[in-house]
Amino acid sequence: LRHFCPGRYEGPGPDGFSGGYYKALRPELVPFLTSVFNDCAEGGSLHPDLLVANIALIPKEGRDPAAVESYRPISLINFDAKIFAKVLANRLSPLLHDLVHPDQVGFVPNRQLFDNTRRNADLIWWLSSRATPSLILSLDAEKAFDRVEWPFLFATLSRLGLPDFYVNMVRALYSGMSAQVRVPGSSPIRFPICNGTRQGCPLSPLLFLLSLEPLLAAIRGHPEIRGVQVGGESFTVSAYADDILLTLTDPISSLSHLRPVLSDFGEIAGFRINYTKSCAMPLYMSHTDAASIESGFGFRLAPSELSYLGI
């Protein structure tokens, strides 16, 4: 409870209890919550009402109010679920430095976006100074956080060496989740949630990083997906959560091996690339090879510049 800043994560969920309620009654509630959460470590479950979320629809400015896409959904989960998630996040966060490769800088303590942007600028300069045929590829993931398959997530946590009691706790937090859309003038209808890392959950971005790491590891370790070799080290991947930038040499061959890796990972993990929104910038490639990136692989071409994380 001490880690929750005023106003952050404190909005009430469906049960109506805010962070202020839990802070005011901390001596009375903490022993009870501790008992419930510890039971999950032994394979216990949480009550379904604790795991339900309200979804509020926020209208986008200047959009048609009759169109579904004109609204931004905001998920409000119960505060006791946030407490449990925050406890798990605090346990996991110090381990991320060892579990997640340095080229992933999103949500990992002491890593900065600047680390990747500076490195990518240096790699582009290095490629340009040698006129090396290469490709800068920005991948657009389609609803990446919402599509994570839970069986894959739980298996990944175990494979990474997290103890069984911790995986049991994550499973208890994510199994049996549901949501209900709040629309003025109508009664909410509850529906189950069967995949994804949850919006408004302090643990969600950390779980997503770990679920994505097998894909990034497969790309880094594939002998036919060639990155930039500098000083005996290969640089292929730069990532900030689901924003992925690949730096490829031998581009046509690398892409032909990249597509099956993305497809296979998507089948088991739920991850899906939006090829029409992904963008490729060729460097020193022939016109024929550059054209085949769009016609043969489906990536949109950006002939002269490419925006990554707004830069």
Task: Write structural notes for this entry.
By secondary structure, the chain is of the alpha+beta class. 41% of the residues lie in helices and 17% in strands. A five-stranded mixed sheet has the order 8-9-3-10-11, with helices on both faces. α2 packs across α7, α6 crosses α8 and α9 packs parallel to α10 (287-297). It is globular. The chain starts with 18 loop residues before the first helix and ends in a 10-residue tail after the last strand.
Question: What is the succession of H and E elements?
Answer: HHEEHHHEHHEEHEEEEHEHE
Rg (CA only): 22 Å
Widest sheet: strand order?
A: 8-9-3-10-11
> Based on CA inertia axes, which overall geometry fits?
globular
Task: Indicate the proportion of strand residues.
Answer: 15-25%
- Number of helical segments with 4 or more residues: 10
Protein traits:
single chain; 311 residues; alpha+beta; 5-stranded mixed beta sheet; 4-stranded mixed beta sheet; 10 helices; 11 strands; globular
